[in-house]
Amino acid sequence: MDERLITAVSSFPVLFDASLHIYRDNVKKGDAWKKVVEIVGASEVQEKWKNLSDQYRRERNRERERSKSGSGGAVQKPWRYSQIMSFLNPFLDSRLTSTNLSLPSSSQSSEGQMSQIIDSPYRLPLAKRAEAKLRIHQIMFEMEFSE
């Protein structure tokens, strides 16, 4: 039944393609779901489709996580409906996002850079670290109290 449901839904883009102008038309969606019920021959297809599409989304995200660089581990068998549901891929891709947060001002970023410079000697051997800290503090003192 699951495969019949997936193929039936795939022939009605109004049920999954949010870029269509009729996607928000509940009457057209209702008609499409009625046709899917006729094709599949079962009720509760909307709930079943929701479960299948959610599972596909989760499996796709897991696959992306597994394929990241440096993530070794066992090879897992793909979900059994991954291939047949791949028609959803263009509609599941991440959208560009934006933010209303502003970038830090130059004084804040320079303070952050300075703290990074001061913290960086910790990667040096102990003797070099002490010498680097002393020089950094001397430079900071000169900059702060000169003129």
From TrEMBL:
List the residue ranges of the region (Disordered): 51-77
Sorted alphabetically, the Gene Ontology BP terms of this entry are:
regulation of transcription by RNA polymerase II
Q: Which residues form the MADF domain?
A: 4-93
Query: What PROSITE patterns does the database record attribute to this sequence?
Result: MADF
Q: What cellular-component terms does GO give this entry?
A: nucleus; transcription regulator complex
Composition-biased stretches (Basic and acidic residues): 51-68
- Annotated PANTHER family: MADF DOMAIN TRANSCRIPTION FACTOR, MADF DOMAIN-CONTAINING PROTEIN
Q: Please identify the protein, giving its name as recorded.
A: MADF domain-containing protein
Species source reads Astyanax mexicanus (Blind cave fish)
